[in-house]
User: Which sequence fits this backbone?
């Protein structure tokens, strides 16, 4: 059976979480949400802004396949009684997506993602997950909306991130690849920027 194993996807997710924690920890005190709460509400982290003491919740996602689009999951087999994808049920206030291909993090208010789903479905349709994850003896079935990164940028922030260079690969290769509409080249935040809400400035 072809596909990506459940463990591989789990390990990718954990790697992305560590990279996002390192990125955000310069401006926030970050608390890992217990697994039980994470399963119920799709909330990965509790952020406290170091400058303002504002507290808010964040869901982390890592899209290792994203080049021009990010995958916004609307259906996931076996996820609760209704098989609803995380984009429909996530209770976090903000969504942070790590995009390794461009060494970027995309941060969007979760309320905006939910509000835009009907529009995005009409414009971009719904597609199967780009990789078939095999876990516990059967294929993992998921569907979602391939939303262009440029569309997501309209509603949030798109910043540089500094992951470790993979073995044998220059970390700057993907970042310096020319693409339509400058998807790989959006200017990041400057160091020392004052901390505000994620949606306003800080992410």
Assistant:
């Amino acid at each position: 059976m072809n596909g990506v194993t459940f463990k591989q996807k789990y390990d990718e997710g954990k790697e992305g979480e560590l990279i996002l924690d390192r990125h955000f920890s310069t401006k926030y005190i970050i608390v890992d949400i217990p697994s039980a709460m994470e399963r119920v509400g799709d909330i990965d982290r509790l952020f406290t802004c170091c400058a303002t003491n504002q507290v808010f919740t964040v869901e982390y996602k890592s899209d290792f396949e994203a080049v021009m689009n990010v995958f916004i999951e609307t259906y996931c087999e076996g996820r609760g009684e209704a098989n609803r994808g995380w984009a429909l049920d996530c209770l976090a206030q903000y969504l942070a997506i790590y995009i390794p291909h461009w060494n970027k993090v995309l941060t969007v208010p979760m309320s905006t993602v939910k509000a835009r789903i009907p529009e995005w479905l009409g414009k971009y349709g719904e597609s199967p997950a780009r990789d078939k994850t095999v876990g516990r003896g059967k294929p993992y079935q998921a569907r979602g909306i391939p939303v262009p990164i440029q569309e997501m940028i309209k509603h949030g922030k798109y910043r540089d991130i500094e992951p470790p260079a993979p073995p044998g690969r220059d970390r700057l290769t993907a970042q310096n690849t020319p693409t339509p509409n400058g998807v790989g080249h959006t200017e990041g935040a400057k160091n020392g920027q004052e901390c505000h809400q994620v949606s306003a400035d800080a992410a």
About this structure: The chain has one domain: 4-202. Helices lie at 6-24, 35-41, 86-89, 110-124, 149-153, 172-175, 198-202. The mean pLDDT is 78.
